[in-house]
């Protein structure tokens, strides 16, 4: 089947030269002098690609891009202009342009971009159908993952204590949520607590609550997470990083099903099930007396060990498809597919950050892939050389750089930026003011 291109430009010389340069036996080229005529041509003869100037009388190229995305979403749109101002380029890429070419045009570059678009369309034709819109879920058919699914079903039927072990990014909280969701108490709260986010004294108050006046700043009574959980589940992430003092108080909760709010004389009862998780070697911590041995055995009633991604690479295609679908829904765009080269690059990586690293990689790719296909340059994977100490940055600098990068990728679109960052629009405004990014 012949490929078709529509050239839209108010300059007849540009229309003529591109028509002569790009048209051949395998490619049909039509032209239009403005956006209105271009829309009429698309309605009668939908092209594969529309190559349009930005500055034209009447509707400009950006307007035409938006109308084509609405009326003929299968048409790939490439914009061209003698003016390459950042706002114009960013707006074009944000609104769905495949590429932006600067005049005077380099015909070699034009042919290269078109070849890529046609190759992408061929790849797109092999795309899987969109997955159903399910929330976060476990994905995998590896034999060890099947064994974990079985364990989840068995453990969910009881209220026994569970410890989940695995490297960072393997999905320990997803396992805990799956146990809770499949239990008889699924209607009760699931309360997750990151034990490394708070010092020992504040962690105790967070979990057990406190009475007014128990410490400086305690101006009123506060219920803790155990009270809020009811008969639900308390998920204690990174339990291996807690102090031995806190471990002793948690042991009492597991043994006696009661705890003391900070400043209280009498204990309170709890019916919450405890699921703990850690990436640490608990046996080594016990040997070094950094983790209580009695708590270790109390937690290890049932143990679930999650394999790292590098040991279940057969699940990679399933994970990629699911994560791309989810990232695309969050970004409000149709899901792109991955080129064979991108799939090869993903398969060659060792994924030290596991599924979380893969998710971040694909989320970035969905944001940066202007067209329908994710290619290797969108992935940014691979081992980066260690940075010299002089280049190390603070968390605040890292946050500013990441927010600025996402803001640039969305062309300054605040609502979409907030959605990708997973924060509210008011919080984004505060972050932009904080770092002077407005």
Describe this structure in words.
The chain has 438 residues and is of the alpha/beta class. It folds into 4 domains: 122 residues, Rossmann fold (3-Layer(aba) Sandwich); 164 residues, P-loop containing nucleotide triphosphate hydrolases (Rossmann fold); 65 residues, Helicase, Ruva Protein, domain 3 (Orthogonal Bundle); 47 residues, Arc Repressor Mutant, subunit A, CATH 1.10.10. It is 45% helix and 13% strand. The chain contains 18 helices and 14 strands. The strands form 4 sheets. A 5-stranded parallel beta sheet has the order 2-1-3-4-5, sandwiched between helices. A 5-stranded parallel beta sheet has the order 7-8-11-6-12. Strand 1, helix 1 and strand 2 form a beta-alpha-beta unit. Helix 6 packs across helix 7 and helix 10 packs across helix 12. The radius of gyration is 28 Å and the shape is elongated. About 4% of the residues have low confidence.
Question: What is this entry, summarized?
Answer:
It is built from 18 helices and 14 strands. 32% of the residues are buried.
Architecture blueprint of SSEs:
Elements: E1 3-8, H1 12-22, E2 27-32, H2 35-44, E3 49-53, H3 61-71, E4 76-81, H4 86-94, E5 99-102, H5 107-124, H6 143-156, E6 162-165, H7 172-181, E7 190-194, H8 200-208, H9 225-229, E8 233-237, H10 244-256, E9 258-259, E10 268-269, E11 273-278, H11 282-287, H12 293-299, E12 302-305, H13 316-331, E13 337-338, H14 340-348, H15 354-368, E14 373-374, H16 395-409, H17 414-421, H18 425-435
Helix pairs in contact: 2-3, 6-7, 10-12, 13-15, 16-17, 17-18
């Amino acid at each position: 089947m012949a490929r078709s291109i529509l050239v839209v430009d108010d300059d007849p010389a540009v229309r003529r030269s591109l028509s002569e340069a790009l048209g051949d036996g395998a490619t049909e080229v039509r032209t239009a002098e403005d956006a209105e005529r271009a829309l009429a041509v698309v309605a009668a003869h939908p092209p594969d690609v529309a190559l349009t100037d930005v500055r034209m009388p009447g509707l400009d190229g950006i307007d035409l891009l938006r109308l084509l995305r609405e009326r003929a979403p299968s048409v790939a749109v490439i914009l061209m202009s003698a003016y390459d101002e950042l706002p114009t380029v960013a707006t074009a890429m944000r609104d769905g342009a495949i590429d932006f070419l600067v005049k005077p045009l380099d015909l070699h570059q034009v042919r290269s971009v078109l070849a890529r678009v046609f190759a992408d369309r061929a790849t797109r034709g092999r795309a899987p159908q969109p997955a159903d819109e399910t929330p976060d879920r476990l994905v995998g058919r590896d034999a060890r993952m099947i064994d974990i699914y079985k364990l989840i079903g068995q453990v969910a039927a009881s209220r026994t204590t569970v410890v989940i072990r695995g490297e960072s990014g393997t999905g320990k909280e997803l396992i805990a949520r799956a146990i809770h969701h499949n239990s008889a108490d699924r209607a009760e709260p699931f309360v997750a607590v990151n034990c490394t986010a708070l010092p020992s004294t504040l962690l105790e108050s967070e979990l057990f609550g406190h009475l007014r006046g128990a410490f400086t700043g305690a101006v009123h009574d506060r219920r803790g997470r155990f009270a809020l959980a009811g008969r639900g589940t308390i998920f204690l992430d990174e339990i291996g990083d807690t102090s031995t003092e806190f471990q002793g108080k948690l042991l009492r909760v597991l043994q006696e099903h009661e705890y003391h709010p900070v400043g209280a004389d009498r204990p309170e009862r709890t019916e919450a099930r405890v699921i703990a998780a850690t990436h640490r070697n608990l046996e080594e911590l016990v040997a070094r007396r950094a983790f209580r041995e009695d708590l270790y055995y109390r937690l290890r009633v049932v143990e679930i060990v999650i394999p790292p991604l590098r040991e279940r690479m057969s699940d990679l295609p399933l994970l990629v498809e699911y994560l791309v679908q989810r990232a695309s829904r969050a970004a409000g765009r149709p899901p792109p597919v991955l080129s064979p080269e991108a799939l090869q690059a993903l398969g060659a990586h060792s994924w030290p950050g596991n599924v979380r690293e893969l998710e971040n990689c694909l989320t970035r790719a969905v944001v940066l892939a202007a067209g329908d296909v994710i290619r290797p340059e969108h992935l940014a994977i691979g081992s980066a050389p260690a940075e010299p100490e002089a280049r190390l940055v603070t968390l605040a600098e890292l946050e500013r750089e990441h927010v600025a990068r996402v803001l640039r990728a969305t062309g300054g679109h605040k609502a979409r930026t907030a959605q990708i960052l997973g924060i509210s629009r008011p919080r984004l405004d505060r972050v932009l003011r904080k770092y002077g990014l407005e």
